[in-house]
Structure to design on (101 residues):
């Protein structure tokens, strides 16, 4: 009976811990990869650099790519930042361009 209770408790603990670890990496992402910038498909495209994405137990590389420019917006790349003992990802985004007169 005690063995069964400990097995259930242990399994529950592992599920909770693995779910928590999957959302917040404790190790820094690897250095960025060097990628070759390919030929620009057109004047309305901007290069979005690749980045490391947390996949629950390790990082996976998301390749760089060309994306269409959004009118009056600039691409701000994402970044990793250490927050306490964890690493937090801020995704890249389009930001409105402030035009001064």
């Amino acid at each position: 009976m005690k063995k069964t209770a400990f097995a259930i408790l242990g399994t529950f603990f592992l599920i909770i811990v693995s779910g928590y670890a999957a959302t917040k990496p404790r190790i820094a992402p690897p250095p960025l990869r060097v990628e070759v910038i390919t030929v620009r498909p057109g004047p309305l495209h901007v290069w979005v650099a690749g980045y490391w994405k947390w996949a629950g137990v390790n990082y996976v590389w998301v390749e760089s790519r060309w994306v269409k420019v959004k009118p009056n917006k600039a691409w701000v790349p994402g970044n990793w930042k250490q927050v306490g003992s964890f690493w937090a990802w801020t995704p890249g985004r389009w930001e409105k361009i402030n035009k001064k007169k």
Remarks:
- The two ends are 78 Å apart (CA to CA).
- Residues 13-21 have pLDDT under 50 and may be disordered.
- The first strand starts at residue 45 and ends at 48.
- Residues 31 and 52 are 9 Å apart (CA to CA).
